[in-house]
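Aim 2, interim progress: modelling of the uracil-bound target.
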Amino acid sequence: MSFPSHSDLENALFHCELCPLRKDAIGPTSYNGAPDSPLAIVGEGPGGVEDDYGVPLVGPSGQLLDKALGSVDITRDKVYTTNVIKCRPKNNRTPTVEEGVFCAERWLDEEMALVKPKVIIALGSVALKYLLAPDARITKDRGRWFETKYGIPAIATYHPAYLLRLTGKDLVKAKWEVFYDLKAAVEKCREAAPDYELKSPEPPDLLTLFSSRREERKQKRRMP
Ligand code: URA
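Predicted structure of the complex, ligand included:
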């Protein structure tokens, strides 16, 4: 299926019931940020806060992502942020490769066809495995460029949830690696879209921005 616009895609996504993950989630989460951005960030799948709000990467991982992006002069309203998996797996478990493929072939691929970013950042192992290969390893493959099936170059970096579990020297090392991965992505983006500004003067408050969607989803959850 291909969608004429992003709002058509989002409408269809919000009604998706194609796999069992849907029944344990409040609903599918879509994207946030700028659909005209040359830079797309692809995460894993929604956690609890994202399921509440219906938007990717607005919980603890999203807050750390904002800080990391800030260190390379990116604000979230200037990038397109999405996930491989649209519905929160029960108990926040990591989605399987097969679940990732099933969901992403229906939704992420359509998003990429509409957005046509110039550069993709794969955030963590689930995104790397979908975008590169099922046997890819984040520890081995992060920080190097690869070509996705969309013909768009991508670079993988550690997922913020992984950083949140690290301490001491390991954390410092991983933070620097993420910084250099993001910097490489910004440089490639500037080469491909030199006039696009990745930073806005007023970084958005995503939780406020999507508070009405959260209210709608709360009502939905209360309905029998
Ligand atoms: N982790 C992700 O990869 N995506 C989200 O939306 C939330 C947590």
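The two ends are 31 Å apart (CA to CA). The longest helix spans residues 168-192.
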